[in-house]
Amino acid sequence: DTGVSQDPRHKITKRGQNVTFRCDPISEHNRLYWYRQTLGQGPEFLTYFQNEAQLEKSRLLSDRFSAERPKGSFSTLEIQRTEQGDSAMYLCASSYKTSGGSNEQFFGPGTRLTVL
Amino acid sequence: EDQVTQSPEALRLQEGESSSLNCSYTVSGLRGLFWYRQDPGKGPEFLFTLYSAGEEKEKERLKATLTKKESFLHITAPKPEDSATYLCAVQAPGVDTGTASKLTFGTGTRLQVTL
User: Which of A100-104, B10-14, B23-27 has the lowest mean pLDDT?
Assistant: First the structure.
């Protein structure tokens, strides 16, 4: 069994370029989350999906950010017209929704984005 | 708005010197309190979930406890391999959906255990 995987692990881009990250969740998990983490801070929630439906987006998520989970399996996070402030670790997590509602989220290794 | 405050920000212990990390939280309708361990450059690794006040969970040298306002992560006789950042997070009902969804994290406690 493999855990959550993310690709690429590192991305360096120039300001104004578009970037796309991929996340493959644990196979039986129906929920997928995206978080962003900057140095010295805890992860901040960006958005999450249940199957292919995007159920919640953070107010932090500007119009330049878009996420998809087209078939309820892997997900992509795209950032358009990157800015230096977008430099961060982008973390993906997955979980299995239970009737009780609360469930553990398992994180991937993250994608480190550096915007020059 | 949900808030999580962790203290201390950093903690240096000698091997075998037990201590506790604190996580204070404010949340409307706690669905779960989570502890994660994070090594530099890696994603958080799940440790524990606590659901109600009075609950305790243990794993090796770690023990997590929960009250109505805070959680403690007790580290007994730590070893150098316990050095990491320990993150606390709370989960509340989602605003739009009513079901538990996102985690709200604290800034973590950086633990260093020396020989």
Answer: A100-104
